[in-house]
Design a protein that fits this description.
The protein is an alpha/beta fold and 127 residues long. It has one domain: Macrophage Migration Inhibitory Factor, CATH 3.30.429. Helices cover 30% and strands 24% of the residues. The chain is built from 2 helices and 6 strands, in the order E-H-E-E-H-E-E-E. It is globular and about 45 Å long.
Length: 127
Amino acid sequence: MPFVKLEIIEGKTPEYKAVLLQSVHDALVLSLGIPDDDRFQRLYELKPENFEHRKTVSENITLIELTFFPGRSSEMKESAIFQITRLLGERLSIAPNDIYIIINEPPLENWGLRGEQASRMQLQYKK
C-alpha cells in the first residue's frame, strides 16, 4: 500500500498528468508487485514562483515521495526508482535529471488503518 505524492510545476495538460500518475503506478506494480488496484496517489501542482529549484533542471521537474510499510529490500527500492525514471522518460520525455524520488518507511506503529494501529494487524505484503 504505497502512498504516492507527486509535485510538479503547474501548467501541464490533463493528459500529461494522467500519464504521470499511471506511469508511477505501473512502475510500482512492476517493482514492488503491488496489486493493480492498490492505488493511493496525490498530485500537487505548484505555481513556478512557489517551486524553487536548481537552474540545471527544467520545467518538467518532478518530485516524488513514496511512503511504504517498512521491510522492502534495497533491491525492490532500487527497482522502483529505476522503473519510475524509465517510464517517465519513455512516456513523457522527462529527463532523469528532472526526477527526484524520496522513499519514506515509517514503522508500523506509526500507521493507522481502518481505526487500528497497523502494528497490531496481520498485514500481508511483499517484502
